[in-house]
Predict the 3D structure of the following.
Amino acid sequence: MLRWWRHRNLRARLTVATTAGLALALLAAGIALRGTLRSSLTRGLDETARQEAQAVVALEAARPLPDPVPVVGGAITVQVLSSQGQIVNASYGADRLIPLLPPAQARANARDGRAMLLDGRPLGIPYLLGVVAVPGPHGQTVVAAIDSDQVGASVAALTRALIVG
């Protein structure tokens, strides 16, 4: 390899070195773009779920919640947990027996304001969920979950485009 390199003229060596440097820079930019896209989409979905949970809290504070709890998007699932951890109300299609999060974890997430990724398969939901919890009135906790598989699909599409590019 070294002998091959030495027998090339300056123009050929500069062309190979520049091409290799550009390829590495494009690879690094692609990896950074992929990470930024995943992070941005995940934050957006978490914020959508958080806004829906806060809307349910505001609705509940103004008047008794209707049954089922109204939600804006069909991909969002909402459960209202009592202070004892039982489901007292839920959106259409949400499980009314098994909470998405254990009550202690839901209260801790509501206090911390953090979102988490949850595998929905054990709950009979065939996709990953972005789950947030928000403290509600009277010691209740509102848990909202949103389909997070679309993040993976978008990142996979970008990855394919970058590989082709």
